[in-house]
Structure to design on (260 residues):
């Protein structure tokens, strides 16, 4: 498939728009004029209407023909035009999609009202969740998410309000963590060392923690009953050796650091 890169020019020859099409540029030009006459709102069509109101027509010219969809070539031409100071009516960086488009306050308002009028149903949320499960994320997407979170209160350490804590507590109750989630947390904590200040805060928090109620103690006891990893019950000889070696290493490290 061949793609044509074209420009729309004002009657005085000034280049005001760069586009691409797989059809003829004359057909694409007629489509632009039709959209402008029908009242479609965009920077390009507003400019076209201003030209038509004077009784003149803009001109269209072919500047290149490439194989494929021509996305990168269109982006390169738009970037070059902006660098040269052309007053382009392109609101995006080119190619497929809306990359580079900056929404106005009015557009944001319309989008918000549209979302409020059409809330996502529980079934829709479930299907979106299922569609995203196990979907790998690119490094570019991770970097974008990381940048979006900068300035978020979770990053700045601002404490949550009591209402937020209550909502998170209610939302998290009864949720079962998957093995993949547990493994992710475990891998993230491996090799992590706490500073003396952090340890002091943990110690103070534990000191001020109220004692567990009888009901809580009973629940903990029921949960631990029969668990072979608790209280030395039903541990194999190999497991006992591993626990012993782990404790010996831990105490030796504390001695080397002068903690005991």
């Amino acid at each position: 498939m061949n793609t044509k890169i074209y420009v729309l020019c004002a009657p005085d020859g000034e280049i005001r728009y760069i586009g691409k099409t797989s059809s003829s540029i004359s057909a694409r030009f007629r489509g632009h004029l039709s959209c402008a006459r029908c009242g479609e709102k965009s920077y390009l069509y507003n400019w076209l209407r201003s030209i038509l109101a004077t009784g003149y027509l803009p001109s269209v010219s072919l500047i290149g023909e490439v194989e494929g969809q021509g996305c990168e070539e269109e982006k390169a031409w738009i970037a070059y035009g902006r660098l040269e100071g052309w007053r382009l009516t392109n609101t995006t960086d080119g190619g497929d999609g809306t990359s580079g488009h900056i929404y106005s306050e009015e557009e944001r308002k319309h989008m918000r009202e549209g979302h409020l009028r059409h809330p996502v149903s529980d079934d829709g949320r479930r299907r979106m969740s299922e569609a995203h499960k196990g979907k790998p994320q690119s490094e570019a997407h991770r970097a974008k998410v990381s940048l979006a979170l900068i300035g978020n209160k979770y990053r700045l350490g601002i404490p949550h309000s009591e209402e937020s804590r209550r909502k998170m507590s209610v939302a998290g109750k009864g949720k079962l963590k998957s093995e993949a989630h547990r493994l992710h947390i475990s891998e993230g904590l491996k090799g992590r060392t706490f500073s003396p200040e952090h340890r002091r805060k943990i110690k103070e928090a534990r000191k001020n923690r109220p004692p567990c109620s009888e009901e809580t103690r009973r629940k903990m006891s029921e949960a631990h009953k029969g668990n072979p990893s608790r209280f030395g019950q039903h541990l194999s000889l190999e497991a006992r050796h591993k626990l012993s070696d782990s404790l010996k290493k831990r105490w030796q490290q504390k001695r080397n650091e002068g903690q005991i």
Summary: The mean pLDDT is 81. The CA atoms of residues 75 and 179 lie 44 Å apart. Strands lie at 2-9, 15-21, 59-67.
